[in-house]
Amino acid sequence: MIRFLIRRLLQMIVAFFGTTLLVYALMFAAQNDPIQALVGERPVSDAQREALTKQFHLDKTGFGGFLYRYWDYISHLLRGQLGTSLTGQPVSQIISRAWPYTLEMAAIAIIMVMVVGVGAGVFAGIHKGGFFDNLTLLVTLILIGVPVLVIGILASYLLGYKWGIFPVSSTDGTLWELVLPGLVLGSLSLATALRLTSTSVAENLGADYVRTANSKGLARSRVIGAHVLRNSLIPIVTFLGVEIGNLMAGAIITERIFNVPGIGFNLYKAINTEDGPTVVSIVSVLVVVFLVMNLVVDLLYAVLDPRIRYA
Amino acid sequence: MTDFETAAASELPSATTGLGGKLGAPGQPQGIDNANKPRSLAGDAWRDLRRSAIFWVAAALALLFAIIAIFPGLFTSVDPQNCDLSRSLLPPSSKAIFGYDLQGCSVYARTIYGTRSSISVGLFATIIAGAVAFAVGMLAGYFGGWVDAVLSRAIDIVLGVPLLLAAIVLLRRLSNSTHNFGIWPVVFTLGILGWTTAARVVRSSVISARQQDYVQAARMLGANNRRIMLRHILPNAMAPAIVVLTIGLGAFISTEAALSFLGIGLQPPAISWGGAISDASARIRQAWWPLMFPCIFLALTVLAFIMLGDAIRSAFDPKSR
Predict the structure, then answer these.
(1) Which of A18, A150, A283 is facing B169, going by the closest CB pair?
(2) How far from B115 is each of A29, A151, B21, B66, B298, CA to CA, in Å?
(3) Does B274 touch chain A (CB under 8 A)?
(4) Is A92 on the interface with B (CB under 8 A)?
(5) Is A290 part of the contact surface with chain B (CB cutoff 8 Å)?
(6) Percent of chain B with pLDDT over 70
């Protein structure tokens, strides 16, 4: 277990430096005037230019200069210093204010995925090839195939404007206003989790230990609840963990559609106001969240499935 | 799309000779079984596909959208750039069956012409992603060792950043110039970031094909690495990679719409569904038609390619049989 842990942590460190270097390089690759690019289309005064040159260590040139700046960015990121936006507001403050909305939306999405996705998946897996199984195959195909953008727009138009079941935008930040955005956000994960559960349950139902449990005379509910479900849940837990990271990225679209002032909405705002430092900081934070979730899932996987530990 | 599919179709028969060992992973004997039967794996898959309603619906939709993209003039005689503010937000009528948008442009004409941008972005991004995926997957799988270690870590790193996030950062960079390069910044961004899943698929196909007897035989006959890779191993990696890339094409179109919706994808005067949806969603209280028709086209196009990939994959998956 310890060796697995150490190996996994080392891999995570490599991935962390790799991904942050990628984001950083994307941000500053192929540009002529980094300062102009940073502030966008607006004019820059000489004093601003000098201050920014110093702030970003642009006086150092060449590949060494690039690495120096990257290291500067990383060390600030690691110490939790995310810098200030072009409007002078600390980025960490923007993020801490927006975080609860995105987190609540993601929580609603995950709860829905666990209850509806796993529940329907187990039912479909037990009755493989039945009517319900075929119905879920079709429904999940549509959920996977129709872009979240369209699902969100249709949901906000029909359930929000037309029938008035849900509020259409988040104005006073109550949980109720985040329910519809959360459901839309989780729709793709729901479909994937449902398919994963149903395949996994159907596969495990044919396993030797299920035959043993059945021949021992165990009740069917106990065979399914205690044996099949527990073993089927391993891949689903993994999936859910990775999906939390993906939900953060998916929130950009959903929050824009429903005007939720979360992380994604602030990222969108920063892009449109050409606020470079805020964009890089938010994306970096999201990437770190994504990486940490991957690590947690791998460790959880090792706890749940002993075969991984000794492999 | 058409080039790609004909390429896939022409490679499929040759792929089957090697696929027996690959697809029935524990089923090496199953592969030998298959070879004795008159029906090959591709034959089986085709037999399954022919009976699949989803496959035919998806193929028909994909073909329809491809035709619309190539000959938009066949479907509308209205110029999509011909806008008149006096017609702003007029509802659907016999003159414009989808009505007019805020600028007074025909929603129908703009939706039809938007097909071309979306399909071109998806197609060209898939070609770039496919080329990178085949190169990386082939080198990593064929040479193994440190080449594989380095390339696999590179795949992990690119996969470590969600596609939409990385695309936002890169596009911001590319679109900062004063020139308007049309669809190419989006194509380049999606292609250069979206190859990882396909590369993994190619790599694992190559690894299993490398062990086959006929590859050893070719090597003993004196074939060089390039010949072995292109003639004997590439056809094996073709079918599974095409499936992933077909689904990827749908995902690229969806991502392009999302990027344009956020205002950083295709820029006007390029006509894009995502941009139209973004403009119209602000006016939803006044008019639903500029919003719904691009939405329906976008949903059907993405759905078509993802269903197509899904149907082919399940036909080629012996477990589902």
Answers:
(1) A283
(2) 31, 19, 41, 8, 8
(3) yes
(4) no
(5) yes
(6) 82
Q: How many CB atoms lie within 10 A of CB A1?
A: 12
Number of domains in chain A: 2
Question: Are residue A199 and residue A64 in the same domain, yes or no?
Answer: no
- For residue A174, the tally of other CB atoms under 10 A from its CB is 11
Minimum distance, in Å, between the CA of residue B34 and any CA atom of chain A: 24
Residues A112 and A245 in one domain: yes
- Residues of chain B contacting residue A27, judged by C-beta atoms under 8 Å apart: 169, 172-173
- Tell me the residue range of the domain where A71 lies: 2-78
The verdict on residue A88 lying in a domain is no
Q: Over the stretch A273-294, which tens digit does the pLDDT of each residue have?
A: 767 678 778 877 887 887 788 7
Å between A156 CA and nearest CA of chain B: 10
pLDDT digits (tens, 9 = 90+) for A143-167: 888 888 888 888 888 887 777 777 7
Do both A47 and A120 map to the same domain?
Answer: no
Q: Is A164 on the interface with B (CB under 8 A)?
A: no
What is the nearest CA distance from B247 to chain A, expressed in angstroms? 9
pLDDT in tens, B271-301: 888 888 888 887 777 777 788 888 889 999 9
pLDDT of residue A33: 60
| A50 domain-assigned | yes
What confidence tens digit (pLDDT) does each residue in B57-112 have? 889 999 999 998 888 877 777 777 777 777 776 777 776 677 777 777 778 888 88
Do A143 and A108 reside in the same domain of the chain? Answer: yes
Does A84 map to a domain?
A: no
A73 pLDDT more than 90: no
- Tell whether the model's pLDDT for residue B14 goes beyond 50: no
Measured between beta carbons, the chain B residues lying within 8 angstroms of A15 are 156-157, 160
Domain end: A13, A46, A78, which one? A78
- A11 and A123 assigned to the same domain: no
Domain shared by A196 and A99, yes or no: yes
Looking at A78, A108, A133, the residue that finishes a domain is A78
**In this structure, are A199 and A65 located in the same domain?**
no
pTM (predicted TM-score)? 0.81
Task: List helix spans (H) across chain A.
Answer: 2-28, 34-39, 46-55, 62-78, 91-112, 119-126, 131-145, 148-155, 179-185, 187-205, 208-215, 220-222, 229-258, 263-272, 276-304, 306-309
Tokens 């995925």 belong to which residue? A113
3-state secondary structure of B100: strand
Question: Measured between CB atoms, which of B160, B169, B291 is closest to A153?
Answer: B291
CATH number at residue A202: 1.10.3720.10
Q: How far away is chain A from the Cα of B216, in angstroms, using its nearest Cα?
A: 31
Same domain, A42 and A183: no
How many Å apart are CA B107 and CA A61, to the nearest integer?
A: 51
CB A147 within 8 A of CB B298: yes
- Torsion angle of the four alpha carbons B227, B233, B234, B236, in this order, in degrees rounded to the nearest 10: 150
Look at residue A171 in the predicted model and tell me its pLDDT. Answer: 66
Instruction: For residue B263, give the nearest of A161, A253, A272 by CB distance.
Output: A272
